[in-house]
Amino acid sequence: MNNEKTILVIEDEKGIRNFIHNALTTNGYKTILTENGKTARTAFLSQCPDLVLLDLGLPDVDGLTLLQEFRQWNKTPVLIVSARDKESEKVSALDMGADDYITKPFEMKELIAPINAVLRRTEIPN
Question: Rounded CA gap, 65 and 13, in Å?
Fold first, then answer.
């Protein structure tokens, strides 16, 4: 798999954002870091990431609202990374178009494995 992919990280907590950034760059991914919905929308439209990691609890917008907007714009894979762990919330996010759902707290391998899997499924064959 070509890890020269760019991942948009939408996470308002600086410590978690830094952990995710370090995990991704260690595994060969490029990152775009945002901390709220406003900057995330701009980055999503202008940077055209290969995948999005989306926290649901953002300071200015619910992550599910962003997920709906992203799905209206294109089919870029979106993985939810959230502390919300109720089954109904996970099912709702997946039904709205999320490609996977990772519950906080998580280990690096729990983050990287679904990213690799989703990107493998969405790669265009040569």
Answer: 19
